[in-house]
Design brief:
Blueprint: H1 2-7, H2 20-28, E1 36-41, H3 46-59, E2 64-67, E3 79-81, E4 84-85, H4 88-101, H5 104-109, H6 112-123, E5 129-133, E6 150-153, H7 161-164, H8 168-176, E7 182-185, H9 191-204, E8 207-210, H10 217-231, H11 237-249, E9 269-272, E10 275-277, H12 283-292, E11 298-302, H13 310-317, E12 321-326, H14 337-346, E13 351-353, E14 363-366, H15 369-378
Parallel strand pairs: 1-5, 1-6, 2-5, 6-7, 7-8, 10-14, 11-12, 11-14, 12-13
Antiparallel strand pairs: 2-3, 3-4, 9-10
Helix pairs in contact: 3-11, 4-6, 8-9, 10-11, 12-13
């Protein structure tokens, strides 16, 4: 069974063997038939950008696969096929097929993400397009072994410094080295990303566009109206435009009416009148939420992994925080509660343990996928 198999694989590694996935792919690639691949890399907004594009192409009567990570409640969320999370039966069938293709060496050594990336590609056979979201990085990410016809680059910022580098230039170089043929840059906060992209374009002979190359002023304004009608959160507009630039690149006309009733799980999503969930976990996500809640006072239900710059995240959100309520999560990466509390004391932010939702206050559930998962599993039914 797939669940039991994946349970034997750790989700995170302190060191990564970057040769393993290319070697595994080389050993099985003759058994795969891949369609047009659109690779989505960057730091923030990969999930929403990819889903915008996958949804749009589906509405153009195409067969579409969208691979994203991590999941919130069920593994099936990672493999979205023609508008729905993949069914258990298809997962199990392709799990057995993949085991039959892989040597015992790779069955044992492939990481959780590497194995499930290959599994997703089997599930997507017969699709017209695959929208493939990178995991940790770019150049050495498991999703980079397949080659791509187009790369979409969401905003690049500081994150996962131990693996990607400790400067924007290093991180941008690592991510952008995943570009194979063509790329479209979303709006970037750091000008260094544009500089790195120009050097890369000359060095590798790839063509890199900026997203606004594809749009008129009226189309940009229309995208913002579409986003406000769907989310009441302006920061998704840039992600939508990057996705639609990808569609235009392949010759599709843009009709924002195709987003009527569009749903995006877990990003600035109101699950009740006074509770918003967001699976973001880094500085860029905090800045976007700060802008969204700038005229509000919220109770922040929070926790953080120790490798995140949670002090800076809390500093950014402090002007809108009424108090922080710490939600315990079971994860080996989570920061020690005492250390998080000392940080809150230093920042002079009132805090307590989370117990329950008060219907008279506004809540933001934020900090990581794990925080949102824990809240929805154990407290979500009490928000309504």
């Amino acid at each position: 069974m797939l669940a039991e198999f994946l349970a034997t694989k750790p989700l995170y590694y302190k060191e990564i063997d970057y040769t393993r996935m290319p070697r595994a792919w080389e050993s099985v690639k003759e058994h795969f038939s891949l369609p047009t691949i659109i690779h989505v890399i960057g730091t923030n907004g990969k999930g929403s950008t990819g889903r915008f594009l996958a949804h749009y192409l589906l509405k153009c009567d195409l067969k579409i696969g969208h691979y994203t990570s991590p999941h919130v409640l069920r593994f099936n969320e990672r493999i979205w096929l023609n508008g729905f999370d993949v069914e258990d039966k298809m997962l199990e069938q392709n799990h057995q097929k993949l085991l039959s293709l892989l040597s015992s060496e790779f069955q044992e050594s492939l990481s959780y993400f590497e194995y499930t990336t290959l599994l997703a590609m089997l599930c997507f056979e017969g699709s017209d397009y695959i929208v493939l979201e990178a995991g940790l990085g770019g150049e050495y990410d498991a999703t980079s072994v397949f080659g791509s016809d187009l790369t979409l680059v969401t905003p690049i910022s500081i994150d996962h410094e131990a693996f990607l580098g400790d400067t924007i230039e290093k991180i941008a170089k690592t991510k952008l080295n995943a570009v194979r043929k063509f790329a479209i840059l979303g709006k970037q906060e750091y000008k260094e990303v544009y500089k790195v992209s120009k050097v890369l374009s000359r060095k590798k002979g790839v063509e890199i566009f900026r997203y606004d190359y594809f749009f008129s002023y009226d189309e940009i304004a229309e995208s913002k109206e579409t986003i406000r009608s769907l989310f009441m959160a302006d920061f998704f507009a840039e992600n939508l435009l990057l996705a639609m630039a990808g569609a235009k690149f392949f010759g599709f006309e843009i009709d924002f009416n195709k987003f009527d009733n569009f749903k995006l799980f877990g990003r600035c999503q109101k699950i009740s009148d006074n509770v918003t969930i967001d699976v973001g976990h880094n500085i860029a996500a905090a800045k976007a939420l700060m802008s969204h809640f700038k005229n509000s006072k919220i109770v922040l239900v929070y926790n953080s992994y120790s490798d995140k710059d949670y002090e800076e995240i809390l500093k950014i959100l402090k002007p809108v925080i009424k108090r922080v309520e710490i939600l315990p999560i079971l994860n080996e990466r989570v920061e020690q509660k005492e250390i998080l509390e000392r940080t809150l004391e230093t920042l002079k932010i009132e805090f307590d343990n989370f117990h329950k939702i008060n219907q008279n206050e506004q809540y933001l559930i934020f900090g990581s996928f794990s925080v949102v998962e824990e809240f929805l599993n154990h407290h979500g039914d009490k928000t309504r």
